[in-house]
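As promised in the previous annual report, we have extended the structural survey to additional targets. Below is the entry for Probable chemoreceptor glutamine deamidase CheD.
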Amino acid sequence: MKIIKVGMADLNIVKAPGILTTLGLGSCVGIALYDRYNKIAGLAHVMLPSSKEIKNNENKSKFVDTGIELLIEMMIDKGAIKRNLTAKIAGGSQMFSFNNNSSILKIGERNVLATKEKLKELNIEILSEDTGGNYGRTIELNAEDGSLLIKTIGHGIKII
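The corresponding structure token record, generated without further manual editing, is:
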């Protein structure tokens, strides 16, 4: 079975059998999309909520809004059907504690909210999530069944 690594601010797709994995999700969000009928999986490792807030936004994979759109396009090109897509999300940790409550610093929380808003706008149901907390995650999306394996340090392993 092939295992494809997805880096930070990166995305990729795979048709079963195959696994997409991304390491060290902190405040970043791993967005796993899956078409269970065609067994096509897509994974994006996004860093920031919106490409509209930043001038240097050529890398579409870096942002929630453009990353999800690009991932869907790639999956459709491979044979996925948009209405079949479901999502699972992980990450969005608050990795550092701050003394003030500025939302600009709560990047993990903002990434999760932006992800939920974008998926809702595109009518893609989120089946499950493992977000928040103050620890990193490594995730593996299996194209065979759409299961998302989540490994954490100090919080064990689970499948959502």
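The longest helix spans residues 107-121. The helical segments are 64-77, 107-121. These points will be discussed at the next consortium meeting with the crystallography subgroup.
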